[in-house]
Amino acid sequence: MDAARHDGQGGAMTPCDVTxxxxxxxxxxxxxxxxxxxxxxxxxxxxAAPQGGHCPECLAALGHGSRDPHDPSWVAGYxxxxxxxxxxxxxxxxxxxxxxxxxxxxxxxxxxxxxxxxDFGSDGTGFVDS
Amino acid sequence: xxxxxxxxxxxxxxxxxxxxIHQRGFTVSLRRDDWEPVIxxxxxxxxxxxxxxxxxxxxxxxxxxxxxxxxxxDMRPDGVLSVxxxxxxxxxxxxxxxxxxxxxxxxxxxxxQWWAMDPWLRMRAELRDGSVLELAVTDRTRRRRIRKxxxxxxxxTKVKSKTVHMVSVTRRLPKDAAVRRPxxxxxxxxxxxxxxxxxxxxxxxxxxPGAPTEERLMEAILHVSTEPFRWTPPGTTGRAAR
Lengths: 130, 242
Hints:
The complex is a heterodimer of chains A (130) and B (242). Chain A contains 3 helices and 6 strands; from the N terminus they run E-E-E-E-E-E-H-H-H. With 130 residues, chain A is α+β, with helices and mostly antiparallel strands. Chain A has one domain. In chain A, strands 1-2 form a two-stranded antiparallel sheet. A two-stranded antiparallel ribbon of chain A has the order 3-4. The longest helix of chain A is centred in the middle third of the chain and has 16 residues. Chain B is of the alpha+beta class and 242 residues long. Chain B has one domain. In chain B, strands 1, 2, 3, 4, 5, 6, 7 and 8 form an 8-stranded antiparallel sheet that branches. The radius of gyration of chain B is 22 Å and the shape is flat. Chain B starts with a helix and ends in a 12-residue tail after the last helix. Chains A and B meet through helix 2 and helix 3 of A and helix 3, helix 5 and helix 6 of B.
């Protein structure tokens, strides 16, 4: 499928660019409903903060991320701290930059990273080729 | 009956939450999304049950739940996440070996030593890139009981223990996945073994001495878990990047 996806009605759809996963990184890929006011990346309804519409990364950077692992949004905030710490532990700057590059991919269209199906499952429901 | 409301609240908890309260552990395999009700139930515990006797083991909230969140984030909805948690602690008789006498000299009357092995957590997750991650945490404790007589004739007994937390993480890559040796070696406390083949297996193991806090222990488990993923550049292993 082409990188530019389309919705079921044939209109152009902007996929959510939020990074998902912890060790196996990917993109959400759900239809975006808004743009993050901080970084501008398209964000779907599930990843947009209820107040302000920030993406999880910017929310964590602003210090509003959850510190409680029972909260589903905890992973997104903890992931960046984990990559920072493990880069120091392993003395491996490429490890952190791999995550950072993935995260910055939102600003680099066509950077080679592809979208996964996010939480939609493998049947690709809701997506059709143009 | 005493504690009637709290007993009723426990009866409404998720069955695995109840197992953590009453049996201090469980062994179960569930699909990724089926773990969310378990975590949600655990999150509501403190608001409904205050009795300390019925509190879930502290490692459930501090180690198990974060690891469930991390592994679930890397899984597909239909991926299976298996957990065998035994949070009964080290005092259970079947985790303790047989005491062996040790040579002694005055003023020690007798000394015996035994080992306790507590494999308290095992997890297996089918990740969305097609690899399978297996994680095991075992506490190994050396215990010594020493009886000695002081100059006034009193006999006193001392018990000493020394614990090492052993973490082992194995990642079985999808078939013909590209493997690349990381640019830097892991820290000295992490050991890596790689078995090449059509499905490469990477095993990282680490030993943590002393008594770290549960938060530090969880971080250390994730640090060891990081090593198998450094061998595959992001977006190269399989389905997540296709």
